[in-house]
Write a structure and sequence with these properties.
The protein contains two helices and eight strands. The strands form two sheets. A four-stranded mixed beta sheet has the order 1-4-3-2, with helices on one face. The chain has a four-stranded mixed beta sheet with strand order 5-8-7-6, with helices on one face. Helix 1 (15-26) packs antiparallel against helix 2. With 137 residues, it is an alpha/beta fold. Helix content is 18%, strand content 35%. The longest helix has 12 residues, at 15-26. The protein starts with 7 loop residues before the first strand and ends in a 5-residue tail after the last strand. The chain folds into two domains: 8-66, 2,3-Dihydroxybiphenyl 1,2-Dioxygenase, domain 1 (Roll); 81-132, 2-Layer Sandwich (Signal recognition particle alu RNA binding heterodimer, srp9/1). Residues 6-130 form the Glyoxalase/fosfomycin resistance/dioxygenase domain. This is PhnB protein. Pfam families: Glyoxalase. It comes from Streptomyces capillispiralis.
């Protein structure tokens, strides 16, 4: 098997809701495992997500989890998840769902390099970039 690079997102107690949201956006199969399923002590964390993985029919893999007990959740601006391609209908659908309830920093529109591009932060604080490649000619 070839090596792969997958985004792995950290959440502050709302990983289940976020991963279910991404399943609604992208479709596919979602697996969620809780700390309780893996024998993590502490009833307050038993239902929190220790590992979540979404595999979509388009070949995306997105992983995420709630921060482990004792670790601080400190989101920042050192990353963004980028989705790109030439299927304009699918990408606009992702954009509409991702930006709904979030904030748009760059509207999804034609850019100086020719592609349709936008940036938003979803309602869970995760920054996204969507790039719709425009055909030459």
């Amino acid at each position: 098997m070839a090596s792969v690079l997958n985004p792995y997102l950290s959440f502050d107690g709302d990983a289940r809701q976020a991963m279910e949201f991404y399943k609604d956006v992208f479709g596919g199969e979602l697996r969620l495992n809780t700390y309780g399923e893996f024998g993590q002590p502490g009833a307050e964390n038993a239902d929190k997500i220790m590992h979540g993985m979404l595999r979509t029919t388009d070949g995306f893999t997105l992983m995420g989890a709630d921060m482990p007990p004792g670790m601080e959740h400190a989101p920042g601006n050192a990353f963004a998840v980028s989705v790109s391609g030439d299927d304009e209908s699918a990408l606009r659908g992702y954009w509409d769902k991702l930006s709904s309830g979030g904030s748009v920093s760059v509207p999804l529109e034609k850019q100086m390099w020719g592609d349709v591009f936008g940036m938003c932060t979803d309602r869970f604080g995760v920054p996204w970039m969507v790039d719709i490649t425009q055909s030459e000619g």
